[in-house]
Amino acid sequence: MSQKVGDRLKAVRSMYGLSQRELARRAGVTNSTISTIEQNRVSPSVDSLAKVLAGIPMSLIDFFTIDLDNGEEIFFKKEELVELSDGTMSMRLVGASRKDRKLRVLHETYPAGGDTGDNLIVQKGEEAGVIIRGKLEVTVGERVKVLGPGDAYYFNAEIPHRFRNVGDGECEVVSAATPPSY
Amino acid sequence: MSQKVGDRLKAVRSMYGLSQRELARRAGVTNSTISTIEQNRVSPSVDSLAKVLAGIPMSLIDFFTIDLDNGEEIFFKKEELVELSDGTMSMRLVGASRKDRKLRVLHETYPAGGDTGDNLIVQKGEEAGVIIRGKLEVTVGERVKVLGPGDAYYFNAEIPHRFRNVGDGECEVVSAATPPSY
DNA sequence: CAAAGGTGTTCAAAAAAACGAACACTGATT
DNA sequence: AATCAGTGTTCGTTTTTTTGAACACCTTTG
User: Fold this and answer.
1) What is the rounded average pLDDT of the residues B108-112?
2) Mean pLDDT over residues A73-81, rounded?
3) Quick one: average pLDDT of B46-55?
4) Spatial distance between the Cα atoms of A69 and A62, rounded to a whole number of angstroms
5) Å from B33 (CA) to D22 (C1')?
6) Strand C positions with any atom < 7 Å from protein CB?
7) Cβ contact, residue pair A45, B46, below 8 Å
């Protein structure tokens, strides 16, 4: 818990794509409150902080627990994937540098113009995938990148995310979900 | 996080055997501050709360995370232990009703008058034991009980605790530590 | 019994945080 | 170019929290 409360709030808020005013409106506080908190010019009361977080929504315990960007990689270039080939089929490991992986990979195909929307669904666990054909725009928190064949992604599913097929044909992806059971 | 901040602080403080004034002195705040917080008459700023917790000491994340009395049993009567006997030796399972047990049992013998002292050492993990011979006074947080042969204990080691041989002879105990490796 | 040291609580004054309304800036739309 | 809606910031006022010094109560000590 070395990080300042203001910094954490700022990081969390921008992760959810909310402006100070938008969050203030949802939380029922003024934008100046959030502004001064994020500048660490004031230390909010626990009630105030809880009230602000309710606008996200996020619990106090999650706010203090969540690690915001642990420095691990999110995007991998084709040549950064680790080859686990057994000879007949090629299996390239995504996120090999990450510790404590807990997920299972699947196959998916996006129709032209396919889009999960910006509802920014959040769920426990992790998510990863490889683009096979087409162009997929992946949004993870504030980071956005258009990935092509051979590229891949790996991120914490707690961070709001979105997928969009920005190519003119189908987009084939090897995707994954966690926990491994489903 | 349904519980109020004041209630949590009060529970944590009394667990550590500190008075409002003693905690106030260690934390560098006034006793009235702690009094009003514990009555939920005010909502402390995050800084203030952290300052108070530093006097325990306890981190913010631990404060919000720790479950203070999860309703699970701490003391077990002799007949409440689950028999895991293999025929030659009798193995009675302590805390069978508890989920996610992570510990390993050992043997110990306390000399007459033996006492771990009230330094209230705190450590991650869980701790359990069975009294074989003698009388052992076990203090866990606010709860105190004198256990005799066949009785047992099981508690979260994060709660301050103390053992004292209150009998006139040796006290034999089957004790345990966590994690299992040591 | 009375004094001393301990507990938690209460109240007016001082300090800190939240509000409310402004400001300055940016990018998009006329 | 000018308006508009958006962003984050700043400042005086209002509200809330913290302080400091009392209070009432209890237990121990002389």
Assistant:
1) 76
2) 54
3) 92
4) 14
5) 15
6) 6-11, 16-22
7) yes
